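Hi R.,

Quick one: here's the Probable electron transfer flavoprotein subunit beta sequence you asked about.
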Amino acid sequence: MASLKILVPVKRVIDYAVRPMVNKSKTGVVTANIKHSLNPFDELSIEEAVRLRERNTKDASKFPHKVERITALAAGPAKAQDQLRTALAMGADDAIHVQTDVGQESGTGGLEPLDVAKLLAKVVKDEGTNLVILGKQSIDDDSGQTGQMLAGLLGWPQATQASKIEFPSEGEVQITKEVDGGVETVKAKIPLVITTDLRLNEPRYASLPNIMKAKKKPLKKVSLEDLGIEAGGRLKVLKVEEPPARKGGVKVEDVDGMIAKLKELGAL
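And here's the predicted structure, written out as tokens:
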């Protein structure tokens, strides 16, 4: 029976329901006294890892991949532990908090993607991980680069934007992802890096008993220095601006009027 040691990186981001406001210096967004939550794509990743375990528990003959451990990891300020506890309440076994304030003062998303990929690569090697499931992007900086960089650093295959994950045979993974005009299916062998897309699953809510149990699960704290990572300095935010306000629409009487208006606006 194949054994899976899964690492799920998660990120603390401004809650998706909150409208971000540009700060006065226009170097980022206001983060003080703003509700933060678990990055939505990372919720999908935690959920999928837990479902893999449940599939093995339900019928090992149909899913011969025992999930030995699900580890959640977050790199960020002290408050990122809240999001790790959420991941633990959803079903992760333990957590690692890489405590750092790099990038937090600007409100532009924290560590640069390459820094995150490097620290993840170090943790993967230290923890003996053979499957990394992470969100395809975070909703604050929308870089969408970490998974690909991590696969490159490890020399592992990667499958991005997964909308379905299957294990057709032992040690083999089949990933379906949506592309323009249809779907694309790829196959790879473990070890593997997978990034998740929105249609992969519907994350469960953390129940109160599981939230209480999560407080007793192990959460290890490390620093960038402990991992030998020197962060920052590659990218500089020049300016952050809100998008221009949408202009009001114009009513036309008939099709001829619409065509004339479109020509006037240079759309035809």
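The two ends are 62 Å apart (CA to CA).

Cheers,
M.
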